[in-house]
Amino acid sequence: MKVLIVGSGGREHAIAWKVAQSPRVEKIYCAPGNAGIAEFAECVPIGAMEFDKLTAFAKENEIGLTVIGMDDPLVGGVVDAFEAEGLRVFGPRKNAAVLEGSKAFSKELMKKYGIPTAAYETFDDPEKALEYLETAKMPIVLKADGLALGKGVLICGNLEEAREGVRTLMLDKQFGSAGNTIVIEEFMTGREVSVLSFVDGNTVRIMTSAQDHKRAKDGDQGLNTGGMGTFSPSPFYTPEVDLFCREHIYQATVDAMKAEGRPFQGVIFFGLMLTEEGPKVLEYNARFGDPETQVVLPRMKNDIVDVFEACVDGTLDQIELEFEDNAAVCVVLASDGYPEHYEKGLPISGLENFQSQDGYYVFHAGTRFAEDGQIVTNGGRVLGVTAKGTDLRQARANAYAATEWVQFDNKYKRNDIGKAIDEI
C-alpha cells in the first residue's frame, strides 16, 4: 500500500522510519516532512492544517492509510475530514482528540469516572483565578486549557509567580486562545513517566515506558520546551505500577471516552506522576509523544502498519505488542537560544556517520534542504540522536557519544538526559 504521514518533526521521522520497515508498504509520502524524512518518503508541500489539500492528495495518489502525527490537525478534525471522503486514517476523531485539546475536558472526565489525578479548579475569568490563588497552597501548577506546543504548563513556586502566571496565560495571551480558560491544580511530587498506548475504541495495548526531560537546561532548570531528550524503559515503572495503571487509568480512560460517546482510536499518551499515594494522571496527549517516539519505536518488534490498521478496524485485541529487551536514550540537539530566539539555516555536517552504525539513529526535528542541497537547521529542536544499549547506562553513553558525530553552529544539548537512572 501507499502511506501518507502528516507532520514535519522528529516524531514523524521516527514513524516514517518504522513504516518503511513494513513489507506491506510500497511508497511513503510525508506532508510537509523534513530533510531527514526525505530519506524514506517523498515530501509534499502541504501543511498539516490544509485538510482539503491533504484529502485531495490522498485520493489522487490512492493512499491506503494516512497517519496523523501532530496534535493541531487532530484537534482540528483532520480525521473527520478524511473519513468524510471515505479514506482510511489513523488517529482520533475531533470529538475524541479533545482529550488533549482541552485540559478542562480531560480533568472533568477523570473526576467523573474516578481516574486518579491532581485536585484542580477551572477558570475562564482571570479575576476569579487570581482570587482563588490567595487561599491556594503553594507551589501550584497553571495549565492553559488549549494546545500550546507542549509549553503551556507553568509551575509556580510562590503566590507572586502564580499571579504572574495567570497574567501571562489569560491577560498577555502568551499562548493565544489556549489561555482563555486555565486549569489550576495541586502540585504533585514524584517521578514522571510517559506511557504510550494504541487504542481501537475498546482495547488498549500499552507500549514500553519512557521518561521525558521538558526543561531547557541541565538539572531541570530553564524554560519548558517540547522535550530535550528521553529514555526508555523507565526503571521506576515497576510491574506493580503497571498493574495499577492498567486497572485504574488506561482501560478506565478508554471506557470513559466510549461512555461519553467519544470512542478513541489512535494513540493515547499517558503522562503519569508516581506519587506517594500512587500513580496519577498529569496529562493526556492524543498522539505519539515527541521525543518519546524516538526511543519507543526503535525498541518495538511489531510491523507498525499492522497495528495502525488494527486500531482503525477495531481488531487490536488480536495483536500483542512486543518490545526488545534493551534500552534506548534520545538526546535532542537544539539551536542555542531555544525555546525563545535562535538562528536558522545553519549547515549540518556528519549525518552520514549514522548510516553504517547499527543501533544508532538520528531523527530530524527541524531541518530542511538549502538551495545547494545541503541540510541546514530549520527549528529550535534540530535533531534527536538516539542510541540503544543492553541497559540504560550503556544506551546513554552510546547516545552522548553519537551527539559528537554531528556538528552545526550554535549546537546545544542538555548533558543530564537519563541522569535519574544513577539514583537506582
UniProtKB/TrEMBL annotation:
GO biological process entries? 'de novo' IMP biosynthetic process; purine nucleobase biosynthetic process
According to its UniProt record, this protein's enzyme class is ligase
Domain named ATP-grasp: residues: 107-313
Specify the superkingdom: Bacteria
This protein's pathway reads: Purine metabolism; IMP biosynthesis via de novo pathway; N(1)-(5-phospho-D-ribosyl)glycinamide from 5-phospho-alpha-D-ribose 1-diphosphate: step 2/2
Enzyme Commission code(s) on record: 6.3.4.13
Q: Which Pfam families match?
A: GARS_A, GARS_C, GARS_N
In terms of SMART domains, this protein maps to: GARS_A, GARS_C
What catalytic activity is recorded? 5-phospho-beta-D-ribosylamine + glycine + ATP = N(1)-(5-phospho-beta-D-ribosyl)glycinamide + ADP + phosphate + H(+)
- Keyword annotations from UniProtKB, A to Z: ATP-binding, Ligase, Manganese, Metal-binding, Nucleotide-binding, Purine biosynthesis
Q: Which cofactors is this protein said to need?
A: Mg(2+); Mn(2+)
| InterPro entries from the UniProt entry | ATP-grasp, ATP_grasp_subdomain_1, PreATP-grasp_dom_sf, PRibGlycinamid_synth_ATP-grasp, PRibGlycinamide_synth, PRibGlycinamide_synth_C-dom, PRibGlycinamide_synth_C_sf, PRibGlycinamide_synth_CS
**Positions of region (Disordered):** 210-231
Q: Where is the composition biased (Basic and acidic residues)?
A: 211-220
Entry's Gene Ontology molecular function annotations: ATP binding; metal ion binding; phosphoribosylamine-glycine ligase activity
| PANTHER family documented for this protein | PHOSPHORIBOSYLAMINE--GLYCINE LIGASE, PHOSPHORIBOSYLAMINE--GLYCINE LIGASE, CHLOROPLASTIC
What the entry lists under HAMAP family is as follows: GARS
Q: Which family does it belong to?
A: Belongs to the GARS family.
Listed name of the protein: Phosphoribosylamine--glycine ligase
Organism, as annotated: Cuneatibacter caecimuris
Lineage, highest ranks first: Bacteria, Bacillati, Bacillota, Clostridia, Lachnospirales
